[in-house]
Amino acid sequence: MKKFASLLLALIVMLSFSVVAFAETSPLTDEELQAKYKELAGTSINVYNWGEYISDGSEGAMNVNEEFEKLTGIKVNYTTYDTNEAMYTKLKSGGAAYDIVIPSDYMIQRLINEGYLQKINFENIPNYKNIMDEYKDLYFDPQNEYSVPYNVGMVGVIYNKTMVKDPEKSWSLMWDKEYKGQILQFNNPRDGFATAMFMLGIDVNTQDEAEWQKAYRMLIEQKGVVQSYVSDEIFNKMESGSAAISSYYAGDYLLMKDNNPDLEFFYPEEGTNIFVDSICIPKSSQNKEAAELYINFLLSEEVALANAEYLYYATPNKTVIENEDYSLRDNEILYPQKEDMPKTQYYHNLDQETLGLMTTLWSELKIEGTSNTAVYIKLGTVAFIGLVAIIFNTVKKKKREKLYDV
What we know:
Blueprint lengths: L1 H23 L5 H11 L3 E7 L13 H9 L2 E7 L2 H10 L6 E2 L3 H9 L34 E13 L22 E4 L2 H12 L8 H15 L2 E5 L3 H7 L4 E5 H10 L3 E4 L5 E8 L8 H12 L1 H11 L6 H4 L22 E2 L6 H18 L1 H35 L1
Parallel strand pairs: 1-2, 1-3, 5-6, 5-7, 9-10
Antiparallel strand pairs: 4-7, 4-8, 4-9
Helix pairs in contact: 6-7, 7-13
């Protein structure tokens, strides 16, 4: 009987702890959210996001940041970057304290490993329930502690059908000499190298130096046909018809096609990158609770729908997918049927040695890519200096001869 009483007491204690734990992690109610808004009104958050990556009020769309400010009284200071690597460098430098960043999966893994992110308090994010289960427990944040999914996408090839006729669905189009000077390549090393690796059948997460060197040689070969390496400037180039072919993100293609119906798109048969961009809070955050309220706002049905309609990326938010008014819910590029789904691979964080190799090779590629111009400038400079020297010596010689004549 005594043993039974002890077991019963232990069970009661365990249940008590479970109840307390549950209470501690219960999401805020609407009333509690309103109280948080009042408490934090007058403060501010610094949001660092990709360019063109939030509904900003243009063309009659919702201005997400303004609506958040109206609702909460919390000011949003908003700045943008164009690559994961640029964001990482800025964060690492410590030059600014950000409350929100929205990196891609592999970069989130790197930021977690290097201690640049802090765990999120999901009590302040009741709308986390809107995230589909398939975008939870992912490799880069398996315990769902540091990130909240924002957008999902895949990489493909965009081409102008008036300039490119019936191409094969292959990365090789990006190397086609017939389109020399009309091809755009990513202006970041991870995506740029991946185009070569997928074409060559190389694992994009390889740590084998020989395979990175092989991909590098392919990019060197491609350099001769590349017009430029681009990020956000791709929009003007492809929409205006000043370039014929580019690798880029599917969601951005749909935006470009709205402005230029001659643009087409395919997922290469060799395979491509799938990514999940997620919202994170850096260790440098000075207003963590307000940042969590901002995340919760982004996950609300109305805001998530506005972003999905404006950005044209696939959404991980089930309230949007289930909304019959969502105009892109049946889009075959954003949401391919199972039989049309391309072979995909996530980028993973690379070890320091491989990261260093990738960075070095990319820098060499870009230098190599501009070497002819640099050589011409250098030769012209040398020739100019030589000409000046000849003139100076001739004048000096004539002066000397004149002096001796006297």
